[in-house]
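Your task
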Amino acid sequence: MRMTAPFAVIVAATLAITGAAPAPAHAEPGDVIFATNVFQTEPDSPVPSYDIRYEDGRTGTLADYAGEVLVVTLWQEHCPYCVKEMPVLNRLSGAMKGEGVRVVALGLDQDMRMITGFLDALQLDQIEPVMDLEKVNATLFSLEHFGRTSIATPTSFIIDKKGTVVARIWGLVDWDGDAARAYLRSLVLQG
């Protein structure tokens, strides 16, 4: 069932008040999940698997996080909305790390010192510095889920434990809210 905009606002408000989240298995592609800018993706959308770089210089892919529910946010140092959202994501990461949920802040700035400097300056110690090498993952995320090659920040994706992109988000989200956390917990409980 596709929700109309007024109905989606009512559902989102109800979820925010009750702290409940709809069962992800019942959402159709394009449906609002727990906030008006959080949408269900197409089924079986694999996470891009191009190189990312960790602070210690190692390279890997988002598949390195298999078995965890991920909130992957695409961000840049000069993005004012990212500056606003990153402390919220830091709190989410700290609060849910032991529950099988991990925040991966995929920095689009192509200098690890810039990424770590930004995180240090804002005292974001619960977010692991990760750089999207050549912005390939971000471009693929944007193209696949938003139909454009340009990358707007902050843009986020929620990935289940199997490595499937289950939600796409453009803009800020209340990650401190009960609805967001209930949705993430529901994904942890899925096989």
User: Anything to note?
Assistant: Confidence is low (pLDDT under 50) at residues 1-24. The chain has one domain: 5-189. Residues 5-189 form a domain with the Glutaredoxin fold (CATH 3.40.30.10). DSSP finds five helices and eight strands in the chain.
